[in-house]
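hey so i finaly got around to running the thing on MinD/ParA family protein from Cryptosporangium phraense. pasting the sequence first so u can double check i didnt mess up the copy paste, my clipboard has been acting weird all day
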Amino acid sequence: MPEHADNRLQRLKTSLNSGRAARESAGVAHELSQPITVTRRIAVLGIRGGSGKSTVAALLVSAYATHRGDRVLAVDADPDLGSLGLRLGASSPTSLSGLGKVPRVWSTLDEAERCLGRSQSGAWVLSGERGSAAPEVVPPNAYLGVVHGISRYFAVTVIDAGAGMVTPLNQSVLADAHSIVLATPASVDGVVSARRALEWIREWGPHRLPQTLVALTAMSPQAAAIDLNRTAEAFAPFGVVPALLPYDRHLATGSTIEPWRLGERTRNSAVQLAAAALAKSRALP
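ok and heres what it spat out for the 3d tokens, dont ask me to read them lol
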């Protein structure tokens, strides 16, 4: 019996979509694997508490560690009991604030590695203080001294900064980063907050907007239905295209992220965001 025309059309559409997805995937993988001659620092900031920034930072770290053949470093610079180490399942012998108290020089990679933990994906981790009733805020100069001293041994460094834009530490993180990822909930309020953050960046350092991305994190299954076209219109005046990280039951547990337990859409979205952040970071000297 001859194949129905509708069936042939559907098979053609499926084939075209599969081919397009394969080409996009190949392009993303190519961008992620591009050689890096000078370390790239990518900062992830939460516009407010509960924005999913540590989750975004951990997904970026895992993507780089998985798809690149060189060394990747994760730094927890959140003074409010940051959870990057928890999300990556690794902790370091000392914290960022601990290293910042006594200026030092790491003469070799072996010396630097003694201060770091190692995640399941193979990334090195400099975790923040946990379990302290009054965590210390790292002075900006101490932060820069530690990060510059240790990140030179790594191709990509992802910094999980604290919430908010105006703290002295976060401004140092922003000024020093090669690209910036702003994490915000995938909601109307989250979009409004992100616009305000972009307005602040435009006033503070308009030259940083081309290196800035917005990651909308879906906190519930319903949030995944956000209209990305309308959201893109809200960010168009800043030249920023938003990325959506869909709701994922594994991420929602708040525990250590095991990449093989993530949904396919989540994995693909995280890899695309990682490629975009790296591409923007490469635009700076």
